[in-house]
Amino acid sequence: TLPVVDPATLAGPAIPAVFPHFVDGGGWSSQIMLINPGNSATSGTLRFADPAGQPISSLEYSIPPRGVQHFVTPGTGEAVRMGTVAIVPSPNMPWPGGLLIFSYTKSDIRVTEAGVPVSAVGTAFRVYVEASDATQSGIAIMNTTANPANVRIELMDLNGASLAATTIAVRANAQLAAFLTEIPGLQNLSLPIQGLLRITSASAIAVIGLRGRTNERGDFLITTTPPVAEDGSSSPELFFPHFVDAGGFTTQFILFSNGSNGPLGGTIRFLSQSGQPLDVKVR
Prior knowledge:
By secondary structure, the chain is mainly β. Helices cover 0% and strands 49% of the residues. The protein has strands at residues 17-24, 28-35, 42-49, 55-63, 68-72, 81-89, 97-106, 109-117, 121-131, 135-143, 149-157, 162-170, 175-179, 193-214, 220-225, 228-229.
């Protein structure tokens, strides 16, 4: 899936705009698309950093009004490099929107790819996770501040009961990227697991969920899963703009609380492409 850029939610002057995960080398490469939805040109710098927060490289961008600029990492070498990307506009320039796509290619065949949006920055997030022999969830967390941050990671089951918790120190502008059973303090979990990760920090952080699966052919496939901010806000109606069922396809729906007090309840309505009600059996 690819994220959609909403011009109304572009980062303001005091809010960092970051991609909390990119990967390059060892068959992996990353594409970055920057989108200028405004009527004025914009320019700035893309700053790449390693997981320790140390600068790797930077690229200048200059985007005409309502234009797009595309960047691709080299993808060369056997070593896998990963880290974060920060968007830094030039003084008095508007912020661009954007998305990042990282992909894995083997023998000139693209095996898998996943999209990363410009990520929201906050202090508390929840993300659905699971781990089994074939499927492994993960996270990428970026400390977007210039000071070290203590990040608490709590694993809860589907009933909201705490299973395990750990606190990890993340350096200034640094990244923690790991699958669930690789996170320090969570390595000894009993599989299989389904639940939520609650990620909190007193400092501003950006988060993206990861979901990897090894298919029946032995290919490693990966996608991203969006985190939900614990901001207490809610909408009377939410939508999934696409689902598919039958013909070899299935859709999994994950509903969970964003931290609001009290139980939640409601109705899921399935609609056809013409807007008519659909009778869909779920379990």
